[in-house]
Amino acid sequence: MPQSLSLQQLPFSQACENNKQPIFTLLAKWFVNRQHVLEIGSGTGQHSVYFAENLAHARWQPSDQQHYLPTLQARLDLQTSPNLQQAISLDVTQPWPLLLSDVDAIFSANTLHIMSKPMVEAFFTGVGSVLVNSGSLVVYGPFNYQGQFTSDSNQQFNLWLQHNNPDSGIRDIEWICQLAQQQGLTLQEDITMPANNRLLHFTK
Question: What transmembrane ranges does the database entry give (predicted)?
Fold first, then answer.
């Protein structure tokens, strides 16, 4: 993808635009002392750009699967935040890059319901391998509680997800917490967010 693309020509997520400020309000508190943030599944790069600009004390590392990197990096190239890093290729089911050895915070938005269950398990195994002790993991997205959807719209969204990919789906919070605990992560806060989403804050 040519780096000369304009901002208007790049993929755009209205959901990212809507939720970046509510998410940032909490990241500003949770990441106040964090120095190296890994974002998993950076997608369009809108979160990367906004959070790096507003968390100037932290090095922000975007990542995604290889085929998303050209348009992701094209957006990053249009920004000037000195703490915003070049995007790296990260497939949660493959060995994670060694350069992630000093990560003290990880952020991921709207990824776990897209992943298959084995990929979610690999996500947490990888997080456990690269996140330093006392580090933070923050995950944004929809979750079920005791096997129940939190809204009719989430139930409809889940049907849409599984129609497009039978391996995807909104995950149970209890299972997510179990996977986290296996990696030494403890859920500290579970915050209600707009559009029937949650923001989960774990610490290691």
Answer: none
**Dihedral sign computed on CA atoms, order 121, 122, 127, 129:** positive
Residue 96, pLDDT > 60, answer yes
15, 83, 139, 190 from 52: Cα distances, Å: 18, 6, 17, 23
Contact, 78 vs 7, CB < 8 A? yes
User: Is residue 190 in a domain?
Assistant: yes
Domain count, the chain: 1
- What are the tens digits of pLDDT across the range 167-189? 999 999 999 999 999 999 999 99
pLDDT on residue 2: 44
Q: With contact defined as beta carbons under 8 Å apart, do 200 and 139 qualify?
A: yes
Q: Is 140 part of any domain?
A: yes
The domain in which residue 174 lies consists of 7-203
- Classified as helix, coil or strand, 36 is strand
- Per the domain annotation, does 137 fall within a domain? yes
Instruction: State the Cα–Cα distance between residues 64 and 80, nearest whole angstrom.
Output: 20
**CA pair distance 72, 62, nearest whole angstrom:** 9
**Structural domain contains residue 76:** yes
3-state percent helix, strand, coil for the chain, nearest multiple of 5 = 40, 25, 35
Sign of CA dihedral 48, 49, 51, 55: positive
pLDDT digits (tens, 9 = 90+) for 49-85: 999 999 999 999 999 999 999 999 999 999 989 999 9
